[in-house]
Amino acid sequence: MAEPKKQSYLTGAAILAGTVALTKVIGMIYKIPLYNLLGDDGSGHFNVIYNIYTLVLTLSTAGVPVAISRLVSESMASARPVQAKRFYHVGLFAFTLIGLVAMALMFLFAQPLADLMNDSQVAAGVRCLAPAVFFSCVLAVLRGYTQAHSDMVPTAVSQIIEVLCKMVFGLAIAWYLKGQGYAKPIIAAGAITGVTIGLGLDIPVIALMSRKSAARTPMTLNLDRPETRLRTFWLILSVSVPIMLGSSVMNIINLVDTAVVRGRLASGAMLAENEIDILYGVYTKGITLYSLPTAFISPIVIAVVPVLAAARGAKQFGEARATMESSMKMTNLLAMPAAVGLAVLAQPIFDVLFPGSNENGPALLRILGLASYFVCVYIITNGILQAAGREKLALLALPVGGVVKIIISYFLVGDPEIHIYGAPIGMVACYAAISVVNILFISATSPARPNYLKVTLRPLVCSLLMGAAAWGVYGLLDKFVFPRLGGGRLAAIVCLGGAVLVGVAVYAVLIFAFRAVTKEDILLLPKGEKLANLLKMK
Questions:
Q1: Judging by beta carbons within 10 Å of its beta carbon (0-12, 13-18, 19+), is residue 181 exposed, middle or buried?
Q2: Which of 345, 355, 374, 476 lies 20 to 30 Å from 58 when distance is taken between CA atoms?
């Protein structure tokens, strides 16, 4: 790859990584007031609707942007601009039809889908999201086409528009419906309509931007003879379907697990429907918080893949090992304190963010805090396997974790003494199993194995000491400051904020005191050189 093109790719990858992190943060900010508006039971309905939509969306569009991007860019590199255009036009036509079919199926079979998830009240929300699947199919082609021209800005802009519309319109509609006295499932359906609105508004924006990309497509005097439309469509499917199957695994597992959890709360724990809605809803709130640390791992994966792939390609195995160790260490340095913080401050976090929630919420978050760490390890180890050209091995680990998760959920959630706690325990076991399998694959296929103890021990010690400091400071503030501020949510915010600030400060001191981070680790991050210079690291 030529140097300018390489730089263009890396810049675009950094843009997408930053956008992913930003959209995840905005998404969490949006869900906090939304879940407070919906209550525990309404939050559960919202999550069930979104899980159904995510699976249908993945089956319809996963792999399409990558397929269009790859095939169009390959055609242009081969001086076949007419074939590049044909990939675009055939893809747009085909996936418009696929989107229409998926939308119709989702709309017509909304009630059976809701019943299958053991939540018969969410059919209206499924219907509200049906058009979103159609819009997403069209957007997938448009995004892939602009990415083929090394232009990641349209994708980034459309993703930000989507999440902002989801937040603004979703909250506005939900508040309106609640003011009109509608039931919680209808309010949840209204809230999720913001997704459909955002995706619908994305289409004209990215369509206009894609025309600018098309204008840059090089043309030749000797026009190439393109493949037939049927052959072109087959080529798109041959690239996108394997990616779709891989992407669908975890979505299918999550959907099955949701049905199992709700079903076993009824058939095993013998809880009433309203109790199930409340417990599953407060568990959903915990899931929103546990997924936040993953937003900060995506930039590491984006940065490490080309570096690691280049080192392995040049047979510089020592460099490859160092890169793997640095990426895993940076993941530990970010994920471990987040997991410990969620665990030790679970009670005040729930009190501040979700006041009035079911009493089981903080305990569920403590368990999910541990799960959040293993999710981050899964993401980085998956990226390492992909960089090594071991994508198929990375896919093999997912069903292992999924089976573990569903089995644990079935037996533990069905136990009346454990009930909803079985769900986060299953989450921990699922991602721990996936992470372990991925690490075994890395060790088995890497000529130079990373030193796992080296990248884990110091971040773990720093995180545990940070957690102890944050827990102790919160205890003191809660005892002496909380009553003097008159109690209430404002006082809780002050106490939690003080504990978090002390925890962050202590952790920052510890990681440098214990030499847990080096300049080589920082350089793996986007803008790592500037950050290392700012920190005066040598």
A1: exposed
A2: 374
